């Protein structure tokens, strides 16, 4: 028996276009970069990936290596076509929205726009700058490993209105902090 496409549930139907044809080569590369490098926690931050999907993606990637193309993602157990398309659109829509709001970020890598960057050798750090910000103010403190405060400041600072990705906040808060640190 070959069921007609209209009798199949929508998540089981073949797409009208092959999955690779739904996105440009640049978009596919951006999605693959994000999904091949994201941790389980980072994947869980994508609303479309619920339940065990983030763990399943990471486990599959560890067993079989990085994903080479978008259709290879469908080999992950329980990852359905429509979910994958929604994840791709989420990743791409997020990056396009960031580019539209912050033109200077166009050269940044996609994965750093909405995934928390990993810190290598955190034990080797001798000090950090902690930043706290709200809609009208920013405060930061330069603290060493012994929790001695080297400098601290609070400043009135207006951010762009609306919601946008955490990495864009980082780009915005870096400027006043770097201006103060260079003085």
Residue windows where pLDDT falls under 50 for at least 5 positions: 1-15, 96-117
Give the total of beta strands: 3
Instruction: Give the termini separation.
Output: 75 Å
CATH topology of the largest domain: DNA polymerase, domain 1
CATH class of the largest domain: Mainly Alpha
Q: Report the mean per-residue pLDDT as an integer.
A: 72
Largest sheet: 3 strands, antiparallel
The number of domains is 2
- Dominant shape: elongated
Structural class: alpha+beta
CATH superfamily heading of the largest domain: AF1531-like domain
Number of continuous helical runs: 6
Radius of gyration: 21 Å
Which architecture name of the largest domain does CATH use?
Answer: Orthogonal Bundle
Give the % helix: 25-40%
β-sheet strand percentage: 5-15%
Widest beta sheet: strand line-up: 1-2-3
User: What is the element string, with H for helices and E for strands?
Assistant: HHHHHEEEH
Pfam family, one: HHH_3
Protein name: Transcription elongation factor, mitochondrial
GO molecular function, one term: DNA polymerase processivity factor activity
GO biological process, one term: transcription elongation by mitochondrial RNA polymerase
Structure, described:
- The protein has helices at 25-37, 40-44, 53-64, 81-101, 111-114, 166-182; strands at residues 127-133, 137-144, 149-156.
- A hairpin with a 4-residue loop joins strand 2 and strand 3 (149-156).
- Residues 1-15 and 96-117 have low confidence and may be disordered.
- The longest helix is centred in the middle third of the chain and has 21 residues, at 81-101.
- A three-stranded antiparallel sheet has the order 1-2-3, covered by helices on one side.
- It has six helices and three strands; from the N terminus they run H-H-H-H-H-E-E-E-H.
- Helices cover 39% and strands 13% of the residues.
- The chain has two domains: 5-103, AF1531-like domain (DNA polymerase, domain 1); 123-182, no CATH class.
């Amino acid at each position: 028996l070959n069921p007609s496409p209209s009798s199949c549930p929508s998540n089981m139907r073949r797409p009208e276009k092959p999955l690779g044809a739904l996105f440009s080569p640049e978009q596919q590369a951006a999605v693959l970069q994000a999904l091949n490098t994201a941790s389980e926690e980072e994947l869980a931050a994508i609303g479309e990936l619920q339940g065990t999907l983030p763990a399943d993606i990471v486990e599959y990637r560890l067993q079989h290596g990085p994903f080479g193309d978008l259709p290879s993602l469908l080999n992950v157990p329980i990852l359905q076509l429509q979910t994958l398309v929604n994840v791709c659109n989420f990743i791409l829509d997020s990056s396009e929205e960031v580019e539209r709001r912050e033109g200077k970020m166009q050269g940044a890598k996609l994965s750093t726009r909405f995934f928390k960057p990993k810190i290598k050798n955190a034990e080797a750090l001798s000090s950090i700058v902690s930043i706290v910000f709200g809609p009208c103010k920013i405060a930061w403190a330069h603290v060493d490993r012994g929790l001695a405060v080297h400098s601290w400041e609070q400043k009135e600072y207006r951010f762009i209105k609306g919601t946008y990705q955490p990495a864009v906040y980082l780009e915005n808060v870096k400027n006043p902090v770097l201006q103060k640190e260079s003085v």
